[in-house]
Amino acid sequence: MDLFNLSGKTAIVTGALGLIGQKHCEALANAGANVVVADVNGDKAIAFAAQLGGQHLGLGFDVTDKAALENTRAIIIDRYNAIDILVNNAAINDMFENPALAKDLSAFENYPVEVFQRSLDVNITGVFLCSQVFGDVMAKQRSGSIINVASTYGMVGPDQSIYKNEQGEQIFYKSAAYPVTKGAVINFTRFLAAYWGAKGVRVNTLSPGGVENGQDAFFIQNYSARTLLGRMAAANDYQGALVFLASDASAYMTGANLVVDGGWTAI
């Protein structure tokens, strides 16, 4: 089990206050790492870091703001002297406040280009910038692990039928933004693994499936029926995979895409 021990390591998790972001932080902390809880909401990030324990740090920044990332890097190095793990978890996934308009707004023909652009900014450029700013430290250390969180929809097209209710009515469409950006993340992982491999920086993708989180009953049923294990993921189903990728347990693994999806992409 020493292979999974992260004692003394410093880990940054972006989008740390999200549903699985919090579980990522908890898993890394339980494995012994010093966790930097990073999110756009700095006050809540500080509060969550305090819940994890005294050695952890909460910081607020926008992943698309390079100057803010560089300032953050200085704070982290000053406190911990190293950056060993980066989990690029921050991402936008479409949410429409008015359910009555969700179908029309999410349809490709009507999908707002400014919403698409914002997803590109956060889901792709944010991963690029965080890897550039924090990964540079790893390259100079000649060690580190970057974990880019993608999705099953980065590998396969969305199954639009799961967004139909019990009456067969289409309630929502999965838009182009999430699959496009998550597919890009997977290939960016390959680029970065090839670029920094000689410097001892490992870069891998974690591709999770859908997490049950109070969705409509019809959606949970539709999704579960489409999955080999017959259920959606629990928020903590990715903790073991994350620690594996962060630790020496995956020391000979880079440029890979670890798919943890209950069998969604197997058929």
From TrEMBL:
It comes from the Bacteria. Keywords: Oxidoreductase. It holds the Pfam family adh_short_C2. PROSITE patterns: ADH_SHORT. The keyword Oxidoreductase applies. Belongs to the short-chain dehydrogenases/reductases (SDR) family. PANTHER family: 3-OXOACYL-[ACYL-CARRIER-PROTEIN] REDUCTASE, SHORT-CHAIN DEHYDROGENASES/REDUCTASES FAMILY MEMBER. This is SDR family oxidoreductase. It comes from Mucilaginibacter ximonensis.
